[in-house]
């Protein structure tokens, strides 16, 4: 059976019109919620430089049990954290300054300042992002202390 010449284009138009809106691709911008933009850490210490070696970004999800303190440590590189669950109180050993961050809050960690994190009444889950260098640690415990993670 032979169709008239106008039928094939009409079939294509009909097929195009029958596509569901869900299958059509739309270009759109995403919604950005800026969580942190700092040139200094939570305790006010300014960041002075990035490593001069090849950069390596890393990200970890760290879970701290309830009512626990991490060992005293330093970070040699700028880094940022985000509280996914619970609360985190960061303590600066030299000044005694403390600040508590709650679920949904971001914080800029200190560089080369001795500090530790303390969890609250429940487990604390953090997302930590570091701007470091390949083969170098992102957290250095003080002598006699356990590793942070």
Automatic annotation (TrEMBL):
Protein name: Cupin type-2 domain-containing protein
Record organism: Gluconobacter kanchanaburiensis NBRC 103587
Keyword field: Signal
Keyword field contains Iron: no
Domain Cupin type-2: 63-129
Signal sequence annotation: 1-24
Record-linked Pfam families: Cupin_2
InterPro entries, per database record: Cupin_2, RmlC-like_jellyroll, RmlC_Cupin_sf
């Amino acid at each position: 059976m032979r169709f008239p010449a106008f039928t094939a284009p009409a079939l294509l138009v009909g097929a195009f019109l029958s596509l569901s809106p869900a299958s059509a691709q739309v270009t759109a911008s995403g919604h950005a919620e800026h969580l942190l933009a700092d040139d200094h850490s939570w305790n006010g210490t300014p960041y002075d430089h990035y490593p001069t070696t090849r950069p390596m970004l890393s990200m970890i999800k760290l879970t701290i049990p309830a009512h626990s303190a991490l060992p005293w440590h330093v970070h040699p590189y700028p880094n940022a954290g985000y509280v996914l669950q619970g609360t985190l109180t960061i303590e600066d050993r030299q000044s005694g300054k403390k600040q508590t961050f709650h679920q949904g809050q971001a914080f800029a960690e200190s560089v080369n300042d001795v500090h530790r994190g303390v969890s609250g009444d429940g487990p604390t889950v953090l997302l930590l992002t570091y701007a470091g260098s390949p083969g170098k640690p992102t957290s250095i415990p003080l002598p006699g202390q356990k590793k942070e993670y």
